Amino acid sequence: MARKKSQTESSTETTETTRRAPMRDFSRSLPMSLLRAREAVMRQFRPSLRNHGLTEQQWRILRALTTVDAIEVTELARVAFLLGPSLSRILRDLEARQLIERRAAKADLRRAVVSISAKGLKLIEAVAPTSEAIYAEITSRYGARKLAELQDMLGVLERSLVAMEVAGEESGEIEE
Amino acid sequence: MARKKSQTESSTETTETTRRAPMRDFSRSLPMSLLRAREAVMRQFRPSLRNHGLTEQQWRILRALTTVDAIEVTELARVAFLLGPSLSRILRDLEARQLIERRAAKADLRRAVVSISAKGLKLIEAVAPTSEAIYAEITSRYGARKLAELQDMLGVLERSLVAMEVAGEESGEIEE
DNA sequence: CGATTTCACTTAACATGTTAATCATCTGCC
DNA sequence: GGCAGATGATTAACATGTTAAGTGAAATCG
What we know:
- 2 copies of one chain form a homodimer.
- With about 180 residues, the first copy, chain A, is mainly alpha-helical.
- Chain A has helices at about 10-15, 25, 30-50, 55-65, 75-80, 85-95, 120-140, 145-170; strands at about 70, 100-105, 110-115.
- Chain A has a 3-stranded antiparallel β-sheet with strand order 1-3-2.
- In chain A, a hairpin with a 7-residue loop joins strand 2 and strand 3.
- The interface between A and B is large, with 72 and 73 residues.
- Chain A binds a DNA duplex (30 and 30 nucleotides) through helix 4 and helix 6.
């Protein structure tokens, strides 16, 4: 908890003008930096996905399904990084479009097991070339080594924050 | 693409086998890395914001408004990095809650000028200490220098991609 | 001027993010 | 076996993301 308030005070003089240089500090916050970077990346992919009638999340799910034979919904949510409710809706739609197949797990009827269909695979194969070309272009422009370094730093950040959450819970704040 | 199919039977311990190293390449893509990192960051802030009845976007807007006297909607969308329709809805709600004030520009009745209200300022001041403490904690955990380097790399990436878009348009694809 | 086009929003419509509640099954314990 | 609590998945409700269409005001051009 010990935290010295050092650069938190600089906001007074950062607001030197209040009219020009609109919120330099704010737009440079970490969440904003990450948001803008991700948006800049996705803006490259969205048109191609859209041409094939897929949203970004639908693509993530189908893409994930190509790497496994079948997978339970909860596990799919984890790998595709979607919350349960979003995944539920999307799976319903993808199933209606016959891009995926779903069945109940024999040993536990609560669990649903999902897999990609032949039609879904065909769709993926139609989109993949463009996507990979875009990804290659990004890698080329930014630099493969730099890109790897960036992703490494993002991974470290992610793990730092998970550790931070754990640290915050080990007191007695599990009250509800 | 090649991934050896293990087993999806034996539901109980399938979780054991399947959860290790599934789709390594996919979950390591740049968009996923950025998404997970940002989510890990925002997960730290959301509870505090929620306690004050604010969403992330509402906070972004109010926070942006504290750095200027008044600002036009389009410009606010640019700084807070929100699309017009989202901003329209949020401004409507914030205005109903009397956290902001809105008036038409004298010189151009199409434009609306927004500013934060006294009530909005008070709310910001109530939330800011916690937010800044969290941000300081993140900075401390990850390292201030490393954080600055990360944000710099994100900025470079963003500019690379903008340049990439421009390059894609300079042929004749401005057809409708 | 006056019609047309452009511009600054705003609405509409649909998909997802987010949290809470619901539902069905499962598990542990008696 | 049966019941209370845990668990997997879905549904509900509201907020935002995203693209397209609509609205009113301003700029442009004939």
